[in-house]
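Support request, please re-run this one:
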Amino acid sequence: MAEKKARLAEVDPVWRRICEEAEAAVRDEPLLGALIHAGLLHHPTMERALAYRFSLKLASGEMSEQILREIADEAYGSDAGLGQAGRADLVAVYDRDPACHRYLQPILFFKGYQALQAYRVAHWLWGQGRRDMAYFVQMRSSEMFGVDIHPAARIGRGVMFDHAHSIVIGETAVVGDNVSMLHSVTLGGTGKEEEDRHPKIGDGVLIGAGAKVLGNIKVGANSRIAAGSVVLADVPCCKTVAGVPARIVGEAGCEHPAVEMDQLLHEREG
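Re-run finished. Output below.
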């Protein structure tokens, strides 16, 4: 058994750490034993655990847990990138959220992480041409988590939704790698146009709570959008914007805003 654990730790250190934390959590809080075993320790891989969580949370009288589990297992089995993204997202939450002390927390307790993984399955379905099923997953994820992401949107890896409530991401939006956004962020359109109409968020961007980024505009890599801002025009790389409508108020303040999570305005123009 020790040999098997050592091999697993070498091949998949993230999942090995989750299992170790889960075993400790059961010892510390036996009343959660059934939940933790069913959600984590019962599964041989992180992909299987994510598929189980997806099916458990999104099942309803309209769609059974068994059917959703089969869909998720097929998605994770067909696209290794889904599991890789799930690991990158989990590490991002652990690294950036001071309320996250263990790897198992996002999988079991954080709706932002769970909503993002549900979107990833929906996006896979969209790519397979199974659009009605993708819309169903979007609907149930919105109902369950309060996060509404169109399955056609493109979202990179290492993304963190902090608190996540009321995040809305439109159909033609693109979100780069290593982005952090807080609750009530909207990546939306500005009217009824049907073509490319949503924002393009570069790598490493930090989007503060309640910010609205509207239209087919570009937000440059490693920029910051202050809480409550309404962004209607392109944002250069490595800048901070704030206000309604948003304007440049200074530099980003650090090399990796989405990782540092510093939301104070250290520099101002004029």
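The chain has two domains: 12-146, 153-269. The mean pLDDT is 94.
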